[in-house]
Design brief:
It holds the Pfam family ELFV_dehydrog_N. With about 350 residues, the chain is an alpha/beta fold. The chain is built from 12 helices and 11 strands. Helix 1 packs across helix 12 and helix 4 crosses helix 10. The chain is globular and about 60 Å long. It binds nicotinamide-adenine-dinucleotide (NAD).
Length: about 350
């Protein structure tokens, strides 16, 4: 297994392998770039089949965090940690204490946070061993009360702001009354996004593999529930993916009619080349790592102790960034993802 010649290696500053015999911890931390500040990124726990898979993931994801934080105008670099293990079987307090020690050994060059397979509980354990843990839940919540470390409401708000900007850019609409939006997945982010949209007067269609989630959106927000496959072909203004990645692919593209794709899900494009196809068709695609940055902004404010008003204003900056991406993409005849990458690189100084 090579690192420096790995296909995902992109001049990462540090790639550190950590092992603790007593707890069985096997983990990798990658710091991709720290030009703008310490590298913040989640700690993923996943039953990787081998070390190579884990390395690939940590290299790819840490690079993505550099771009995401730069686009979000945060004083942060990009990093990520992966733990090789099954989150349903291999978790223990001792394992996460050892992981906390591993994070601490980088002396603050890497700040960890929750990701797939980890959550506030694990962050709290790691925080016992290291100061360099974000999202353990300390700050006041947006609506008051004690903060639980869940960044989803901020992610939803940023996505809402992004949809507003996309509607203005693509449809020339200043207000969202009557805007037709199809939301795929009404979980933590999708439901909260639906609430914002409903308040703004939008008409909603939703689907969810958990029927109860879809029903809740119908009962509480008057959303129309549709089937999992039906969601793509709806005659709507916005398709908002808020479930899983890879859902923009050649099959779904054939059905998709919405002139705008703007949602919170990570890695929406099954293949980067599809951005060009979307551009050709005149579909405005809000790059996922730009529009869903509310979460990382939230985690940063929890850590840095900024006020709710400052957090809200910063999340609203996602709109400005998207506007710049959309305008540049039009004037340069390039895809929104190519422009977003370039903008991030300008910001982090590559
Ligand atoms: P979640 O698990 O709370 O919600 C996802 C919802 O999608 C669930 O209700 C689930 O039942 C539904 N779903 C799953 N597969 C589906 C399918 N095939 N069709 C329809 N519905 C389906 O997750 P979340 O925290 O709301 O995150 C949603 C997406 O946004 C994920 O891709 C996540 O990576 C991304 N994201 C989340 C945050 C955050 O702050 N939570 C930040 C950035 C990105």
């Amino acid at each position: 297994m090579s690192v420096f010649t790995h296909v995902e290696f992109d001049h990462h500053e540090q790639v550190v392998f950590g092992h603790d015999k007593a707890t069985g911890l096997k983990a990798i931390i990658a710091v991709h770039n720290s030009n703008l500040g310490p590298a913040l990124g989640g700690c993923r726990m996943w039953p990787y089949l081998n070390d190579e898979q884990a390395l690939r993931d940590v290299l790819r994801l840490s690079r993505g965090m550099t771009y995401k934080s730069a686009l979000a105008n945060l004083p942060l670099g990009g990093g990520k940690a992966v733990i090789i293990g099954d989150p349903h079987r291999d978790k223990s307090e001792a394992l996460f204490q050892a992981m906390g020690d591993f994070v601490d050994s980088l002396g603050g060059r890497y700040i960890t946070a929750a990701d797939s397979g980890t959550g506030v509980t694990e962050m709290r354990i790691m925080a016992e061993r290291s100061r360099h843990v974000a999202g353990a839940g300390t700050r006041e919540a947006l609506g008051g009360g004690v903060r639980d470390g869940n960044p989803s409401p901020s992610t939803a708000y940023g996505t809402f702001v992004g949809i507003r900007v996309a509607a203005k850019h693509r449809l020339g609409r200043d207000d969202l009354t009557g805007l037709r939006v199809a939301i795929q997945g009404v979980g933590q982010v999708g439901f909260s996004l639906a609430q914002y949209l409903k308040e703004a007067g939008a008409q909603l269609w939703v689907c969810d593999i958990h029927e109860a989630n879809a029903r809740k959106a119908a009962e509480q927000l008057g959303a129309q529930v549709v089937g999992q496959n039906e969601i793509y072909g709806l005659d709507v203004d916005v398709f908002a993916p808020c479930a899983m990645g890879g859902i923009i692919n050649p099959q779904t593209l054939e059905a998709l009619r919405a002139p705008i794709i703007a949602g919170a899900a990570n890695n929406q494009l099954a293949d980067a080349g599809l951005a060009e196809e979307l551009r050709r068709r005149g579909t405005l695609y809000a790059p996922d790592y730009a529009i869903n940055a509310g979460g990382i902004i939230d985690v940063w404010y929890e850590r840095s102790g900024g006020s709710e008003a400052e957090l809200r204003k910063h999340v609203e900056g996602i709109g400005e960034t998207l506007r710049e991406i959309f305008v540049r993409a039009d004037s340069e005849g390039r895809t929104t993802t190519a422009v977003a990458d370039r903008l991030a690189e300008e910001r982090f100084g590559r």
